[in-house]
Amino acid sequence: MAIPYKSELQLLNHDERELVRATHYPAICELARDDLQDTLARLRGLRDKEKAQYMAKRRETKGTGEARGGSFPGTSEQPRRRKQVFAQALKRVNKEIERHRKFEAKAELGAAARRALALKRSGDFHRPSPGVTAHEGMSPLPSRRRRTTVHPSKIGQVSQWTKIRQAQRDARP
Asked: Which of 3, 74, 77, 157 has the most CB atoms within 10 Å of its CB?
């Protein structure tokens, strides 16, 4: 459930207010990508801190953990709501970073398309030959059979020699 803007401000101290205020709509559009990354890291740290306090308070109320400092609020409700505020701010920052990334990708794609168009217009590329085309009619395909490198008379001579040698072996006593 979303937390109203005024309720957010009541839950936070001055520094945290300024950080979360920068993640709302008009202000977040003015931040550069590096500033967004810094804000993201700070928000994660604050959210994790509140999450740890919330979990500690829950363990304390269940009786499975020790009590923490005296200035800590009595219930786990306050840290839970503060954690939600930081989590929502993180969502906004992540969306804005993703929007920046998509914008940069679109710009890179446009630059690549302009380079391709410039290459096409310059005619500075190689066109491969089309190969066999229909208008020249049928063309003979080269044979795929192996060519023998042995002379045909040698082939017969070898088989005849083998036949003679076998007959000589069979004739031995």
From this structure: 3
